[in-house]
């Protein structure tokens, strides 16, 4: 399990345009928002809340990235429906959710279905500065706490 003050696992994932996006591409703070799946109620609320607060995050020199196991096409439809202006990344092989230890089994009672648990990490200079993993995927992060941590950095 990775912890605060440890090196963040690097990754390269596809965005909604099927372009490669790597954690190493970013110099400032990065807010990784793992979500179980597009169009699933709480995930809709979470990603829309990040969008509503996007200017606040950008003003704190932070880039928001959403990560799920959904395909680039599903994430593209999701981003389009909610006018999301930050990248949604597809961890379709589930390697990143494993490396960040945010694997959730059986979402919605579907045995054998593996997705991301809801989690937020703040990474700066390749180091994990903040970590929150939901006790259950139905719980949202404390957005003000995330912004407060960014202000400290």
Named CATH topology: Glutaredoxin
What's the rounded overall pLDDT mean? Answer: 92
For the largest beta-sheet, the strand count, sense and barrel status come to: 5 strands, mixed
Please give the CATH class: Alpha Beta
Number of helices: 5
**Kindly, what is the distance between the CA atoms of the first and last residues, rounded to a whole number of angstroms?**
23 Å
Sum up the overall morphology in one term. globular
How many structurally independent domains? 1
Strand content: 25-35%
Rounded to the nearest angstrom, the radius of gyration is 14 Å
The stretches of 5 or more residues where confidence is low (pLDDT under 50) are none
**CATH superfamily, called what?**
Glutaredoxin
H/E series: EEEHHEHEHEEEEH
Helix/sheet category:
alpha/beta
Tally of extended strands?
Answer: 9
Instruction: Determine the fraction of residues in helical runs and give it as a percent range.
Output: 25-40%
- CATH architectural category: 3-Layer(aba) Sandwich
Spatial order of the strands in the main sheet? 5-4-3-8-9
């Amino acid at each position: 399990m990775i912890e605060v003050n440890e090196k963040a696992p690097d990754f390269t994932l596809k965005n909604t345009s099927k372009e490669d996006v790597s954690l190493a591409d970013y110099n400032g703070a990065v807010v990784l928002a793992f979500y179980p799946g597009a169009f699933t109620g709480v995930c809709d609320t979470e990603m829309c809340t990040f969008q509503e607060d996007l200017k606040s995050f950008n003003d704190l020199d932070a880039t928001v990235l959403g990560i799920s196991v959904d395909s680039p096409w599903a994430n593209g439809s999701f981003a389009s429906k909610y006018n999301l202006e930050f990248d949604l990344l597809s961890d379709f092989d589930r390697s990143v959710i494993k490396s960040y230890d945010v694997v959730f089994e059986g979402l919605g009672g579907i045995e054998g279905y593996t997705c991301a648990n809801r989690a937020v990490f703040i990474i700066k200079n390749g180091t994990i500065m903040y970590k929150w993993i939901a006790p259950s995927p139905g719980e949202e992060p404390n957005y003000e706490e995330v912004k407060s941590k960014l202000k400290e950095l």
